[in-house]
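Morning run. Coffee first, then this:
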Amino acid sequence: MEYFINCNESSLAPYTVSLDQRRAQHLYRRLGFGATPETIAQAVGQDAGTLVDTLVDQALALPVLPPPAWATWTNANYPEDNDAARQLRRQQFEEFKLEYARSLLDNNLRDRLSFFWSNHFVTEYDVYDCNSFLYEYLVCLQRNALGNFRTFVREIGLTSAMLRYLDGAFNNKNRPNENYARELYELFTLGEGIGYTEEDIVQASRALTGYVNRGEVGCTMITFDPTRFDTDAKTIMGRTGNWGYDDVIDILFEERTREIAFFISKKLYKFFVHPDALADQAQPILNGMADTMLANDFEMAPVLRQLFKSEHFFDEEAIGVIIKSPFDFFFNTLKETGFDYTETHVAEMVNYSGQLSQRLFDPYDVAGWQRDREWINTNFIIGRWLTIEGILERFYEADNEQFRRFGLAVTGTLGLTTSNPDLVARPIIDYVLPQGLLNEAEYDKAFAIFRSDVEEVYYEGGDQPIWDLGTWPQAPYQVYLLLQYLARQPEFQLK
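And here it is:
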């Protein structure tokens, strides 16, 4: 059962109304991890189509992460001592995780998509345990993130990380291994039980033989060995021949064209728009996206442009209906406040995300993170509260004035000069929460937190109305208290 019922009846027709703050934030939250008040202010009033095109074009133009010194290392490059080699691998891995995490914060759509694809074409670092494999895999994700899906499928299956993870490196003519063939159909292109048979899996696994390496397990590159390839005829999806790796991909995309386009459209829709892609309202959208994908020979950028520019994407029913993953939870807070962060902050958030069951480059199984409501189960919701409170506290201790600056950046766009704290707190609340608070009674509770212990006499309506967000000494602490309070609210868990 989906946790939100999809009542979005808007179409894929272009959204033609100038962006307001609410929809500008929605766009940046979904295409990246949010944006600062200054960036949102620049987006307000813009044409949605023009801004989406700019963000997509920027994503397409981004270069991949530059190769680290160890990008092509094999076992021979590491110390002979196993403990020393293990320690060096772990150090390289942790440093690379941080570099990629910073790119998630900086690069918006391209790496929002590479992050999405890492949970689609799943591998687990702990299984293959090789940094050069990881770099090759991530570059494949980045290079193809908005590219051609057929090319993507062809390339990802030959990365050493995937070959090791799904046992392609142990698939030979004498002992075929069905793992990759099964996931190619079931998880990567068609969906479980759709458009293939068990015999198709058996036959495809024979065609995928030959990419083996019987050397020592570890960072030993995997290449094609024709002596390990099954040269006998195979029948896949009704077609018989001496098929090999490329033939498996060609047959799949020629025989199951519509099914693939629909399946990928559905995955993109659930990630970017609404978790309920089964609703009747979603079916015309999914069909329209699939039509666009097919009309563009599986190029994904036109599909994404169409979706992100649509009335459906910007519909009220699409705002604040996706539960934040741990990475969303922490990175969204960091991006939207505009607080100054260091590498230590990023490392802390990556670590906390792992503790909350979203380990970077290490999903818990081949199906990836399918947590949805599980992100906020009893254990994890408490973990969210405690970790975000600690993070906000450390930001406050490092520079409490940045809380004042954040409040001013949010309220400044509205030209607020009032000394009424409730009128100042409301836009901050509405900026942080995608749908605001549930009702006025909940706003009153938040207003009381923001007022803190400042005496009423200093507020508007009192005898000495001198309180002002920009000058009052206690104002940074008031904003801090408000953010701490909001971080525990149900609405804060949504994007």
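The first strand starts at residue 211 and ends at 212. Good start to the day.
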